[in-house]
């Protein structure tokens, strides 16, 4: 029957239909994952994505089924840029990307590069943190703040427990904590620790009220610091205390809360899932979060009005690209070195 089909096609002047399996997936060296763009990908006010598109540059546009925002691609460098969208949507976007069949992710390095809230104990607005741990804070019990028992520090606690600061479980919901490859994290930090980050008088003015927190008043810098991911957008002194405790709890004391965002728990959950299926290499995942605002007000000041500023966001966009692009270029330009072997820091440290 197949032979007759070919004869019929030839008689009708039709070209044979190419088999789907004959189309080779594009081998990708590095994927940059951002969560939103304010307007166009180039030429206007930037969000998380634009500086990557213009700066690397990512000159080709690719429509991928399941992604609301077109991906950008540099065939010369083997670098793919993706907007996952925010909060819960990155899970479906990332799954669609991996399952599209258009890309070979078997040796790919993944870099999450987005803005976040920062604990004033950890760093200042504009700073950039490479995460060692990402901790999920979505599967959680929450008591109405007006009804919290008097001896509880806050009304948030783990599933399968009955009070705060007890590690529970979230079977069927989440892995709860992901430890990133410490050698890769140390390498990325060592490569970028000296990166000059933007600072302005206006950023200095935003830092000034936090004089009681030495890290919060420093000019922007690169650090290693861990992430709480939750689709809830939160702010305040008690919630920051909870985030500090939550990271300590789920990392068994090894992690230190630095950044809070809405997407990393979903991204890591999906990458971990597809790594177990052999589609991606989880040891090649990096998370870079840059501070656009503080997670709480200065000590002694009210939580409202919330201190979210355009100046901080612009600095965070810039820092993410300045720091992250150093790693992207090093990986893509020296693929003969990093394609087969994941890099390691010359010396490890904090």
Automatic annotation (TrEMBL):
Q: Report the Pfam families cross-referenced here.
A: NUP (PF06516)
Specify the superkingdom. Bacteria
The answer, when asked if Signal is one of the entry's keywords, is yes
Q: Name one GO biological process term.
A: transmembrane transport
Signal peptide segment: 1-20
Q: Which UniProt keywords apply?
A: Signal
Q: What name does UniProt use for this protein?
A: Purine nucleoside permease
């Amino acid at each position: 029957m197949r032979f007759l089909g070919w004869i019929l096609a030839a008689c009708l002047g039709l070209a044979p239909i190419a088999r789907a399996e004959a189309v080779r997936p594009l081998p990708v060296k590095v994927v940059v994952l951002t969560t939103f763009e304010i307007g166009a990908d180039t030429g206007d006010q930037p969000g998380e994505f634009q500086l990557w598109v213009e700066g690397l540059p990512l000159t080709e546009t690719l429509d991928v089924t399941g992604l609301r925002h077109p991906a950008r691609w540099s065939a010369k460098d083997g670098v793919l840029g993706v907007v996952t969208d925010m909060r819960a949507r990155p899970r479906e976007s990332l799954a669609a990307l991996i399952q599209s069949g258009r890309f070979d992710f078997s040796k790919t390095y993944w870099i999450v590069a987005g803005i976040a809230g920062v604990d004033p104990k950890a760093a200042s607005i504009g700073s950039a943190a490479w995460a060692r741990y990402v901790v999920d804070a979505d599967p959680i019990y929450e008591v109405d703040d007006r009804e919290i028992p008097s001896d509880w520090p806050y009304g948030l606690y783990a599933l399968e427990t009955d009070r705060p600061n007890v590690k529970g479980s979230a079977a069927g919901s989440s892995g709860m904590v992901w430890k990133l490859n410490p050698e890769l994290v140390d390498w990325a930090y060592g490569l970028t620790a000296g990166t000059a980050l933007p600072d302005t008088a206006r950023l200095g003015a935003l830092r000034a009220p936090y004089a009681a927190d030495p890290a919060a008043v420093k000019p922007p810098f690169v650090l290693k610091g861990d992430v709480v991911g939750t689709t809830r957008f939160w702010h305040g002194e008690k919630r920051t205390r909870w985030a500090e405790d939550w990271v300590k709890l789920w990392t068994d004391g090894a992690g230190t809360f630095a950044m809070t965002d809405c997407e990393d728990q979903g991204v890591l959950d999906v990458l971990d899932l597809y790594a177990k299926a052999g589609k991606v290499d989880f040891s090649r995942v990096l998370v870079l979060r840059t501070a656009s605002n503080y997670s709480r007000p200065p000590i002694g000041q009210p939580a409202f009005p919330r201190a979210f500023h355009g100046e901080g966001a612009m600095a965070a966009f810039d820092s993410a690209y300045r720091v992250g692009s150093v790693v992207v270029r090093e990986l893509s330009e020296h693929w003969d070195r990093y394609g087969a072997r994941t890099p390691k820091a010359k010396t490890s440290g904090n």
